[in-house]
Amino acid sequence: MAVTTPAGAGDPGLFTPGSVTWQLHGDPMMWVAGVRALYLQALHPRAVRGVTQNSDFRRDAWGRLRRTADFVGTTTYGTTEAAERAGARVRGIHARLTATDPDTGERYGLDEPALLLWVHCAEIDSYLHVLRRSGFPLTDAQADRYVAEHRAGARLVGLDPGTVPASRAELAAYFEKVRPELAAGPEAREVDDFLRRPPAHPLLIPAREVLWRWVARLAYASLPAYAHELYGRPAPAPAAVTRQLRATGTVLRAIPDRVRWQLPPKHILRAMARLGPDARPAPEKIRP
What we know:
This protein is mostly helical. The protein has helices at 20-24, 30-41, 45-52, 61-77, 80-96, 113-133, 140-149, 151-156, 168-178, 186-196, 205-221, 225-231, 238-253, 257-260, 267-275, and strands at 98-100, 107-109. A hairpin with a 6-residue loop joins strand 1 (98-100) and strand 2 (107-109). Helix 2 packs antiparallel against helix 6 (113-133), helix 2 (30-41) crosses helix 11 (205-221) and helix 4 (61-77) runs antiparallel to helix 5 (80-96). The chain is globular and about 55 Å long.
């Protein structure tokens, strides 16, 4: 199927092909990283209530995952206009939604900066952690650049970029500060249960058992030690997890890029059609 060139041809978009983000987000281990982000995000009681109280995520979980992946793909590889539209859509949704604290009765908006910041940091930490640990070549300086680049993405969802971590050290300090607020409450347990055994069509159950369970188990295993402690399951040996992540990364990266990128909605192929073949993401293109 041909990939058409969209309006705004020649527009490099929010991040541009010269960014670390452009190269990193083309890696297949992003799927494992995305599931790790869900596990981590669920540990913030106020944030996870926003999901469970405003959607039946069990019935539309796949749709939710696809929409998140589409947002990341659009903001990374789409035109500037497409990225801004995607951000406006997310801000509009958050502005309309509220959640209620069952213990205090407090009703709060999902566009609270503290909640948006938690979701953002859990995603960026997960993307960076899983890809580096699975063998994606990235120096510490390049990793810091990646974190800093995502202040632009944070702005799209309604955050003041000046309040968002711009380095690995600032990201680590943020997690240290927020840890007392984290807990594996009923909503986190619900998310955990779903991720371990998501619903599937009977014909797809074998694939779920083989593929999804491996992805979910690996994503969970890569969580920080405090997350394992909160969920109440033993933390696997870090060295074994690293070996599994590297083995999985090796297998997935052996699949030709052009095959992987044919999966809808083909953000990378559209970007290459817009900007030319030199826009192809690849680790070796990251400048020192």
